[in-house]
């Protein structure tokens, strides 16, 4: 009854018969959903940030906001709406497929309308299914959080990931076991209610009756249905990736053999990107449609009725609307291609910041790492600074030196004299056994006239003002306040720096940049985790009069992609790699560089 070969054959036949109708429905639904969901998400998220008065989101701010009553409510509503849209789209496609006849693309308008009329029932089913999955997940999430708090709660996450102490492995074992059990239960519940939506749509059952009908049909088949659904999902996900790789492998060499003339390359690339965009949209549609076909075919095979729904008259000019939707798709692809090419800047303009010095070649935050970064040609030396008990400012990312020395030493308990016997280089390599905690004054003297400083403040609780004043006064004393950058993950510290020294450039490091965030921070630059950067964010930050700095980028392909986005500064552990990449790109002609940028865009 669940024979995979015949099931796939039925799905392929139905796609051929109803493909155009499904595509038109998909386009109409996507436009309507986007018109509602995107503005609603942006508006509510901006309101949430305003309520918390958070200009950006660091790790601590994310946790504080997400775990607040308002944050939890927003998250639950956003999750529910997302699944509701998925259910609505699948319901419309199922209704469309249940109509008698084939090739009835004009019926897509009716399917859209009838799906809207079933909104209360579909919303109720979404609430029950998503709510049950969340309730099943809550106790496991609480147990994992409790285990983390007991075993690792007081340790810095960065230190834990670098050192991986025994407590980390205990937590990994406990958390992994709990996660595996939670995942198994989620899969069991998913298979149990896998056929609830077609029961509601095709047999007009209530949400509760639909869940009961699905439970009846899937009894004894949970493992097979789960395996089939997972295999199908992986196949659908892999298909666009494989297609993209094949398309690029065949088409890119043809473009690369064209004459190096911009008058020819630009139109060809415009067509190339437009065709690529249309085909990727088509692949996405096939995945969505195939999933709906899988569910409805399983429902039919396992005994669910497949009553032909009332074949309501099609709206006037349905064919015209179908052709219009498809034409709009082509126009959208051409416009998107134009946007893509217009974002390509023919010359690269990005500064190189060595993260804790050249920390891939020498121990982080040491004079050796700074010397190496200067030799490699870095524009900035990014350093983490803390204050010792005697007021001296030294370079150290961690408050405790256990990761670097194996000894439980707190920076705030030490004097400069006491640090002279502490080896912070041997952990990296025995060749660096003579490295000691570097002072801010030493780094300033080393970098003067060779590289600028990018100083991230790491104050101890209650020490914020003292550290700000100590750093600013050292920068002013050495005459480099106008060329240095002072950074922090804390919006409060950035505001204090701006108030104390408005002449010094500041950077606020953030994990995410959300709507309305820029209006609430006085920072001159935004430092963003590189995985969150895209062309829209770059444009948003730069249009506000600020620079966008991304951290920490170590892969050459990623470096190239962020250069193409137009970011202003790349912070990396591998400054030599980035400088070599920029040097190589500077030797390319405009046409060659345009091809490089196109290839990077395709691989993003």
UniProtKB/TrEMBL annotation:
Pfam families: GDPD, GPDPase_memb. The keyword Transmembrane applies. GO terms for molecular function: phosphoric diester hydrolase activity. Keywords: Membrane, Transmembrane, Transmembrane helix. The chain crosses the membrane at residues 21-46, 66-88, 122-148, 168-191, 225-250, 270-299, 320-341. Residues 350-582 form the GP-PDE domain. InterPro entries: GlyceroP-diester-Pdiesterase_M (IPR018476), GP_PDE_dom (IPR030395), PLC-like_Pdiesterase_TIM-brl (IPR017946). The keyword Amino-acid biosynthesis does not apply. Gene3D superfamilies: Phosphatidylinositol (PI) phosphodiesterase. GO terms for biological process: lipid metabolic process. This is Glycerophosphoryl diester phosphodiesterase. It comes from Chromohalobacter israelensis (strain ATCC BAA-138 / DSM 3043 / CIP 106854 / NCIMB 13768 / 1H11). The lineage of its organism: Bacteria, Pseudomonadati, Pseudomonadota, Gammaproteobacteria, Oceanospirillales.
């Amino acid at each position: 009854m669940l024979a995979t070969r015949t099931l796939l054959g039925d799905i392929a036949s139905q796609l051929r018969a109803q493909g155009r109708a499904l595509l038109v429905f998909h386009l109409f639904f996507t436009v309507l959903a986007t018109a509602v969901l995107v503005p609603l998400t942006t508006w509510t998220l901006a309101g949430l940030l305003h309520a918390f008065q958070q200009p950006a989101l660091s790790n601590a701010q994310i946790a504080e906001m997400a775990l607040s009553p308002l944050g939890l409510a927003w998250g639950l509503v956003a999750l529910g709406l997302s699944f509701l849209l998925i259910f609505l789209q699948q319901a419309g496609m199922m209704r469309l497929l249940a109509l008698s006849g084939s090739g009835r693309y004009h019926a897509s308008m009716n399917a859209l309308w009838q799906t809207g009329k079933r909104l209360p029932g579909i919303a109720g089913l979404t609430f029950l299914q998503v709510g049950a999955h969340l309730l099943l997940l809550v106790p496991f999430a609480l147990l994992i959080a409790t285990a983390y708090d007991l075993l690792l709660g007081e340790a810095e996450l960065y230190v834990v990931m670098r050192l991986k102490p025994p407590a980390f492995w205990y937590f990994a074992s406990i958390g992994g076991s709990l996660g595996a059990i939670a995942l198994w239960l989620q899969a069991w519940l998913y298979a149990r209610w896998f056929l609830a939506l077609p029961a509601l749509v095709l047999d007009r059952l209530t949400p509760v009756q639909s869940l009961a009908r699905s439970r009846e049909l899937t009894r004894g088949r949970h493992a097979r249905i789960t395996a089939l659904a997972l295999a199908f999902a992986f196949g659908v996900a892999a298909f666009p990736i494989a297609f993209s790789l094949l398309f690029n492998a065949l088409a890119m060499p043809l473009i690369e053999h064209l004459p190096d003339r911009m008058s020819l390359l630009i139109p060809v690339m415009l067509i190339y990107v437009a065709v690529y965009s249309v085909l990727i949209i088509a692949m996405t549609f096939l995945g969505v449609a195939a999933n709906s076909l899988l569910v409805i075919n399983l429902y039919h095979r396992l005994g669910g009725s497949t009553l032909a729904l009332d074949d309501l008259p099609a709206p006037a000019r349905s064919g015209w609307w179908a052709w219009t939707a498809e034409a709009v798709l082509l126009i959208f692809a051409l416009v998107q291609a134009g946007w893509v090419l217009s974002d390509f800047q023919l010359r690269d303009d990005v500064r190189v910041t060595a993260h804790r010095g050249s920390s891939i070649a020498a121990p982080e935050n040491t004079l050796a790492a700074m010397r190496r970064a200067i030799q490699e040609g870095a524009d900035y030396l990014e350093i983490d600074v803390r204050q010792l008990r005697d007021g001296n400012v030294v370079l150290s990312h961690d408050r405790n030196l256990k990761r670097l020395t194996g000894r439980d030493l707190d920076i705030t308990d030490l004097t400069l004299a006491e640090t002279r016997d502490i080896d912070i280089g041997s952990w990296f390599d025995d060749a660096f056994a003579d490295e000691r905690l570097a002072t801010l004054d030493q780094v300033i003297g080393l970098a003067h006239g060779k590289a600028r400083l990018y100083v991230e403040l790491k104050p101890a609780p209650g020490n914020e003002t003292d550290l700000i004043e100590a750093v600013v006064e050292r920068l002013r004393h050495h005459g480099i306040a106008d060329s240095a950058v002072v950074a922090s993950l804390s919006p409060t510290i950035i505001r204090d720096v701006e108030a104390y020294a408005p002449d010094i450039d500041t950077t606020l490091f953030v994990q995410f940049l959300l709507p309305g965030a820029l209006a609430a921070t006085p920072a001159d630059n935004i430092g963003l985790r590189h995985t969150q950067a895209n062309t829209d964010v770059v444009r948003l930050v730069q249009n506000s009069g600020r620079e966008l700095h991304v951290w920490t980028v170590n892969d050459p392909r990623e470096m190239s992609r962020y250069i193409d986005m137009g970011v202003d500064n790349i912070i990396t552990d591998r400054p030599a790699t980035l400088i070599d990449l920029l040097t190589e790109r500077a030797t390319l002609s405009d046409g060659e560089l345009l091809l490089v940028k196109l290839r990077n865009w395709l691989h993003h």
